[in-house]
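This section describes the prediction task in plain terms. A model, or a person checking by hand, is given the sequence of a single protein chain and must write out its three-dimensional structure as a string of tokens. No templates, partner chains or ligands are provided. The sample shown here is typical of the held-out split.
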Amino acid sequence: MSNEAPFALYIRAINQIAFDVSDTLGFSMEMSALAVSLFEEGPDTMQVQALYSTQQQAEQALLSLSLSSSIETMIEQLPNIDWVKKSQSGLSPVQAGRFLIYGSHDKKLIPKNIKWPIEINAGLAFGTGHHGTTKGCLIEFDKLLEEGFIPTRVLDLGCGAGILAIAAAKALKTNIIATDIDTDAVQVTLHNAHINNVSRIVNCYKINGVKSSKLQKDTFDLVFVNILAGPIISLSQDIMEILCIEGKIILSGILDEQYNLVSVAFKNLGLEIEKKSSISGWTTIVGRKTK
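The expected answer:
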């Protein structure tokens, strides 16, 4: 990267559009961003910030999105400071039950009552645990553990930064499988597993969907799926096939208004919805396979 300050592309939009834009900027473009962040600005609006080495790259990224003219956008060069350090210092720790997601700058500030601290630093758009979807998954996972549900075969499908896989590895101390369609996400997950001292038991693979010999039928008794409602529904039958009878699934990345669509798709395949919760407009579903 150049020593010059990067250029920031800002996009403000409703939740679903902002979420889709952050995924596109982080994963799908040939000219990838240096970093992508997603910030909640209210119950229905989010802001995407993508950083680029040059103004031309930021402008090309914006043009490639073909956004409606009604969506607010801006490009500006950031002050010439250590922007990585600054972005990390602006991310406060997130507690989710007995889990705590923190940046390396907060390592000395972890409360003594936290059982499973997880270090995740700001970087590419694979998640830092500050989004309501990840927090919702961790809270529901912690509740399952408190209720005595101790899975032995766990999958984090669409792992991003690997937060859920790392959380499961720390809590269960057993081998965890994580998968993602993006090579960079796999590398980020493996790096994060290393800095959290669970690399020995977190196995991460690049897999599109669940069609792989590593993901066989009736294999897992807990599956995390924190992606988006559309892909979740598209993969629903395949996901249910790799889940054991009486196995549980934690689904998120679902806008509150999409709950019925997702729940019906899984109910029709034999999933009993046990719980649902909502954080900042995003629903998390916990279900059990009954047949």
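For orientation: The radius of gyration is 19 Å.
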